[in-house]
Specification:
heterodimer; A: about 775 residues; alpha+beta; Aldehyde Oxidoreductase, domain 3; Aldehyde Oxidoreductase, domain 4; six-stranded mixed sheet; about 25% helix; B: about 350 residues; Uridine Diphospho-n-acetylenolpyruvylglucosamine Reductase, domain 2; Enolase-like, domain 1; five-stranded antiparallel sheet; 11 strands; globular
Chain lengths: ~775, ~350
């Protein structure tokens, strides 16, 4: 290995700043730039640079997909099922096609086709049309005539598992594997509505429990959470004879291009996918989706651009959700805290979809020789789930981190001390240490119960998530004769701020400021970028951006060398100048050097290399780093034991994401994760009417999520955790930041009340029931 | 949303002349098998109308805006009462010095209603006349009793947010928290007809229970405009409090709310107590037996607890809303004590 002529040896920063930061020798590819020093030695990376398009966002100037208006654009609407299960006997588009405003109509449920002739949930598309105005589309939609034979249905996960339950799918037409970011294994048996089990096993849990001194066991239930993106799903499809251009609110431009090429028999070069402003995705905009296919098909049919923007109701019913789960978790430990066995039995329902697993929290977070899990997916007649911010690990953490808390109590350990014993991660150890100090954990834990109905408590929980990297991530950097710099990539900014981070990355290389860099992304005409899911955007695209910029800089140095009478290798770029490293007085303005370029512009493209120290796992175009991403959150709550109202006063979130590229934006993302986790814990619940299968709260009023007054004081601490892994050494933060919030709150509620809440959302009704409250409430004022 | 015409008359008389239907009647007229718009409806702030029209539950041919009619947003002192124009925004009512000084419970309630954005536009009259939030009622998919259909879906359905009193016919809860306070304060409504004639009646009598008529929440007639709310001037010995409890801290509908008005004599003995509970019945609910327990008592913790328990008499929780009972008990007990001992 050391003999590989394509690589050279370098020493890179390694370890946690403030806790033994050292360096490590790595062999890195020759085309990679020199190691990046720790953040304190940098000028732009690692600084709180405000969001580049922040002003455009708050003034409304930024262009979202819904703002795209093309010449001759049509407006599409989807006719959706109003019954949860039926066989479609006839779809009559005739009257709708006779409407003067209609330009195209298509059938989606095809009578006679065994796969598509069934509708399986309220809101499932049956037909669609495109018309000259939204009003005309709505009028024409009412003219479509559907004949259906209603069939029995089941909407609740427990009922669906009984022998008498109607079958949501015949076995040969049931989905097999999951299309989006979080895969479900293929080819599992399907009995009735129950698919699986998936079994994971190591060691012998029977033996493990037999050697345990203490065993805790609990049943946990989490309900459906919807993504609630501020911007609903939207697409403008423009089918032309020479190719297809699609404007779409998406987390993955390159993936959409590939899906479109496959679905419509086009070459990749014939498809262009564009996204500018985006109002969130959280996993729900990872793929083209049924609605995306519909818009393109209508555009092809009508020979005109077609706009399809989902309403909030459509969004809540049929754009994915976090599946509900039920988990039975049993953990055994010895008196010294050592875990002897973990057994997890779970089921989940993603409606008519798959992928309702509970992640790898129980199997991976703590050291335990004996582990067994069985999981089944249950079909019900409800809209399909899909990946949602830390899929699996959010419900998985809710059960695991409460069980560990329970175990700590039974063993007489402080919750942090038990984790020190069983958590192998040195990063989380440091996070616990820092967090406990800042939070004043030990004093708050000792606080004794106050009189009166309002009880106060603190809790802690941990996060575990893979540090993902997308290998087919590329970036171009272009330098113009006037000194302007462009960064070009297909990567999209879904609101997390990669635009700003790319500007910082490139500015650092050229010795410029972030505002000097023009970032042009979200377009497949540029080198293919990574998806923005799996918390992998920054880890995947910033190393190639730095590498490409570094190559351009070397070319610039070759031009500057003669001007300064210095060897190009001796030059540095800093503060807007190109200067001799040994003699800063020998310098030229950056723009003056550019003016002397032989061509109008020079550019370089780079793509993501393997992590310098190798990956933990690699599958296809994706990989995970050797170390996971940690995270520890502390919560302080009050519980009104007479009303059941939980109020979260404070959350301290201590996280790591490799090298923090922009702490300000990281803090913003962690705030989002904490709020979404809090909202999952306390409020969010998609309510299905069991008698009709309709979602009863398909709006943002009756579907409750946290508002400003429900927000705690959130403090964020981000470690600088150098891993010597890439040209930027950066990883992601989106998903780790939501995982521990709900169990930290639940543990705090337990600390406050002595009652463990194993169900989300923890509403007043749930809390009062757990407290055993009846109308004859006890004395207090 | 369906197409509609819009007009903005500048006089009450012409607005009333246009208003051939009430919102409630227009919604009943809109049967699932018809697609034509129905009637002309009045609109003040438009918060609820817009919601209903977006859901296509309300498809009027004509919307009559009341915003250009002068004088509907005045707050003035009359002989024995305060007259609040029905077109006054919630924010303006809450911010009025007389309201804050004399009707603090009303100000508290208003400040917790909706969001600042909504309070800046929503009017007091529109708030009282808004239609219920029952999710079956609010969905075009359910042809419920209140929309002229055959039965109540909530009674046997998902009813955690529904009524625990008076819920045999239809289990909505009255949507207006403001009504909870106004009923407790003995407020009256002033209704103006097309010829300028007005009628006045107690708000409590203006509101309609399902057993009286399940298709409307009040007695507003076609061509009639709610023009003012009249609040009897409270005597100096009156204490009051309003308390609400929701799942969220703001921008949420209450699970339970309570308004308590106590008239205390010089030795702090309660001469008369008025209690009104919201979000527990199809109309603001006065537990009169509980009110009676307060008379002649010094308001202390046992008195408050006893009254709060008595208020639960006759409750008939549905499958998913029994949790409201301890909430009623707690909220009412706290409201009584807060009225007696303002913070």
């Amino acid at each position: 290995m050391t003999g590989d002529p394509g690589k050279r040896g370098e020493r890179l920063p390694f370890g946690i700043m403030g806790a033994g930061l050292a360096t490590i020798e790595r062999r890195i590819p020759n085309e990679e730039p020199p190691p990046l020093p720790p953040n304190p030695d940098l000028r732009v990376i690692g600084r709180n640079v405000p969001r580049q398009n922040g002003r455009e966002k708050v003034t409304g100037a930024i262009r979202y997909t819904g703002d795209i208006a093309l010449q001759g654009m049509l407006h599409a609407r989807i006719l959706r099922s109003t019954v949860p299960s039926a066989r479609v006997l006839n779809v009559d588009l005739e009257a709708a096609l006779c409407h003067l405003g209609v330009r195209a109509a298509i059938t989606l449920a095809h009578p006679g086709n065994r796969v598509t002739e069934y509708v399986r949930y309220v809101g499932m598309p049956i037909a669609a049309l495109a018309a000259v105005s939204p009003e005309a589309a709505a009028e024409a939609l009412a003219l479509i005539r559907i004949d259906m034979q209603k069939l029995p249905f089941v909407t609740d996960m427990d009922g669906a598992q009984t022998a008498s339950a109607p079958h949501v799918f015949a076995p040969d037409v049931a989905p097999n594997g999951h299309p989006s970011g979080f895969p479900a294994p293929a080819d599992l048996p399907l009995r009735g509505n129950v698919r699986g089990p998936t079994v994971e096993r190591r060691g012998d849990v029977g033996y493990g429990f037999s050697t345990a001194d203490v065993i805790v066991e609990g049943k946990y239930r989490t309900h459906v959470q919807t993504h609630c993106c501020m911007e609903t799903h939207g697409i403008v499809a423009d089918w032309r004879d020479d190719g297809l251009t699609v404007y779409i609110s998406t987390q993955f431009t390159a993936g959409i291009r590939r899906e479109l090429a496959d679905a419509f028999g086009l070459r990749l070069a014939q498809v262009r996918v564009i996204v500018d402003g985006m109002g969130g995705g959280f996993g729900s905009k990872s793929t083209l989706g049924r609605y995306g296919w519909i818009a393109v098909a209508l555009s092809r049919e009508a020979h005109a651009p077609v706009r399809l923007i989902l309403s909030r109701a459509e969004e809540q019913v049929d754009s994915g959700n976090r599946p509900e789960t039920s988990q039975q978790l049993k953990i055994g430990a010895r008196r010294d805290g050592t875990l002897t066995a973990i057994a997890l039995s779970s089921c989940g329902s993603a409606g008519v979809g798959l992928g309702a697993g509970v992640g790898d929290m129980a199997s991976s977070l703590y050291t335990c020789p004996n582990f067994e899990s069985t999981h089944t997916d249950v079909f019900v007649n409800a809209g399909p789930g899909c990946a949602m911010r830390a899929p699996g690990n959010v419900p998985g953490a809710f059960s695991l981190e409460q069980s560990i808390d329970e175990l700590a109590e039974q063993l007489g350990f402080d919750p942090l001390a038990l984790r020190d014993r069983i958590d192998p991660s040195p990063v989380r150890r440091e996070e616990r240490r820092i967090g406990a100090l800042r939070f004043d954990w030990h004093r708050k834990r000792r606080r004794t119960g106050a009189p009166g109905p309002i009880k106060r408590g603190v809790g802690v929980a941990q996060s575990h998530w893979g540090a993902y990297v997308q290998l087919d991530s590329a970036c171009e950097v272009r330098l113009m004769r006037d000194g302007s710099v462009e960064v070009l990539s297909g990567v999209q900014d879904i609101g997390t701020g990669i635009t700003t981070v790319l500007a910082q990355t490139v500015a650092e290389v050229f010795g410029l400021e972030a505002r000097d860099i023009v970032v042009r992304i979200g377009d497949t005409d540029f080198p293919a970028g990574p998806p923005s899911y799996g918390s992998r955007t920054t880890a995947s695209i910033t190393p190639p951006a730095r590498t490409a910029a570094w190559h351009v800089l070397q070319a610039l140095f070759r031009a500057a060398g003669p001007l300064l009478g210095t060897m190009p290798a001796k030059l540095v770029a800093r503060d807007g100048f190109i200067m001799a490293g040994h003699d800063p007085a020998k310098r030229l303005r950056f723009s003056d050097v550019c003016a002397d370029l032989r061509t109008d512009s020079i550019s370089a493209i780079a793509s993501r290399q393997d992590d310098y120290g190798g990956f933990g796992r690699q599958y296809g175009n994706a990989a995970t780093a050797q170390r996971d991403l940690g995270g520890v959150q502390f919560a302080e709550v009050t519980v009104d034991t007479e009303t059941g109202v939980i109020f979260v006063e404070r959350v301290l979130a201590v996280h790591d994401c490799g090298r923090p590229m922009n702490p300000l934006q990281i803090e913003s993302q962690v705030h989002g994760g904490v709020l979404m986790g809090l909202s999952f814990a306390l409020f969010e619940h998609r309510v299905l009417d069991p008698r009709t299968g309709h979602v009863l709260n398909p709006n943002l009023e009756a579907y409750k999520f946290a508002g400003a007054r429900d927000a705690p004081a959130i403090e964020v601490i981000v470690l600088q955790n150098y891993q010597a892994s890439s040209a930027t050494d950066a990883y992601g933060i989106a998903e780790p930041s939501i995982i521990p919030t709900a169990p930290a709150i639940a543990n705090a509620v337990y600390n406050a009340t002595g009652v463990r809440l194993r169900t989300t959302p923890m509403t007043p009704a749930v809390v009062l029931s757990a407290l055993g409250r009846r109308p004859k409430a006890e004395a207090s004022s | 949303m369906k197409r509609f015409a819009w007009t903005q008359p500048t006089s009450l008389a012409s607005a009333a002349a246009f208003a051939e239907t009430t919102v409630a009647d227009a919604m009943v007229a809109l049967r699932p098998d018809t697609h034509a718009g129905h009637g002309a409806v009045l609109q003040a702030g438009g918060i609820d109308n817009l919601d209903l029209m977006k859901e296509e539950l309300l498809q009027p041919n004509l919307v009559i805006s009341l915003r250009a009619i002068p004088g509907l947003d005045k707050i003035e002192k009359q002989e024995a009462s305060w007259r609040i124009g029905a077109g006054t925004t919630l924010m303006a009512v809450a911010g009025h010095p007389a309201v804050q000084a004399r009707f603090p419970a009303l100000a508290t309630c208003l400040n917790q209603s909706g969001s600042p954005q909504i309070r800046a536009v929503a009017t007091l009259g529109g708030n009282l006349l808004q239609r219920p939030r029952c999710w079956y009622f609010r969905s075009i998919a359910f042809d419920c009793l209140r929309k002229g259909g055959g039965h109540c879906f909530a009674i046997l359905g998902e009813n955690a947010y529904h009524a625990v009193f008076d819920n045999e016919v239809c289990a909505i809860v009255h949507p207006s928290s403001v009504a909870t306070v106004l009923v407790a304060l003995g407020a009256s409504v002033e209704l103006t007809g097309p010829n300028g004639a007005t009628r006045r009646l107690l708000l409590e009598d203006f509101l309609v229970r399902p057993k009286q008529n399940v298709r409307r929440e009040n007695d507003l007639q076609p061509r009639e405009i709610l023009t003012a709310i009249l609040l009897p001037n409270p005597s100096a010995s009156v204490r009051m409090a309003y308390l609400r409890l929701g799942e969220k801290q703001a921008f949420d509908w209450p699970l339970v709310d309570a308004a308590v008005i106590l008239e205390l004599d010089a030795s702090s003995v309660c001469r008369q107590g008025v209690i009104c509970l919201g979000a527990v019945a199809p109309t603001p609910y006065r537990p009169r037996a509980a009110e009676a327990t307060l008379a002649g008592k010094v308001i202390d913790v046992p008195t408050a607890r006893s009254a709060a328990r008595t208020a639960l008499d006759g409750a008939m929780p549905l499958a998913h809303n029994e949790f409201k009972l301890p909430l009623i008990e707690t909220v009412l007990r706290r409201a009584i004590l807060r009225a007696a001992n303002p913070v």
